[in-house]
Amino acid sequence: MLYLRCKLTLGTCYLSRLFIMATPMVKEYILYCDESISKGFHYSDFYGGLLISSEHIDEVKTHLDSVKLDLCIFEEIKWTKTNVFTLDKYKQMMEAFFNLVADDIIKVRIMFRQSAYMTQNLTDSQRNNRYFLLYYQFIKHAFGFQYCNPSKEPIYLRPYFDELPDSPIKCEEFKNQIYALQSINLFQDANIHIRRDDIVEVNSKHHILLQCLDVVLGSMAFRLNDLHKYKEPNERRRGKRTIAKEKLYKHINKLIQQIHPKLFNIGINTGISEGMEYRWKHPYRHWRFVPKDFLLNPDRFK
What we know:
With 302 residues, this protein is α/β, with parallel strands linked by helices. It has helices at residues 57-70, 87-102, 124-128, 130-141, 168-179, 185-189, 208-224, 240-259, 278-281, and strands at 2-9, 12-20, 27-35, 43-53, 106-114, 117-119, 155-162, 192-193, 200-202, 284-289, 294-296.
């Protein structure tokens, strides 16, 4: 049985804690994945992941869908739809979402590449498949799966990808690579398994968790690339939409800072001074991916 403790605030409620009174025999995690800006002046190749136990998924989706309905949001929530009219509603939606992150019911990971570190000596195949190669590294390493299972009981991972923007053949090849992750030492040592049928593409319109992830990921790509400073050609002032996006980013950053009371810098790796196992334990982390072989372009630094 699952017990939900809710607090009513301004007509909405949030889950402040989920208490598990009975544990299913097989542990499953659902991994929602999305991507954002692939080529930014300062930062590129943004990937986001959200991990949640199957024990919590139904209650969490019901709760967030209810918050969305209470806020009278009747269309898909997306970072690109942030404006002066949606700003306050999106702020409240992010509060509901980050309450779950703060309680470690949801884990969030954001990966990006600093554009100043220009990858060198790539083969033609690597260039053509860069998108999927980086996605693979993100799923393999971002959550610290090697530290997730001290009991060594079987765990099943169910990856859900927002619709992949490539040919069906390449997408199937990528899914096969994700399926093969369970054969590497990192996953075998943690007793993590992946069923091929569980690796699917989904439409974010039908998944509130992907919608929330899109807003967080988009806000980071926006701020790290200084898009909050953008002005339309021949305009002296920033547009209202740009100002609204900056306000939403600041609100999200405030919520993250509450989770990480120590200094948190969105443009670098989240620290692990407590120990390597916090790559898993932290509910929210950033990973600045740096290629092994790179050439520095100082003009791309902020």
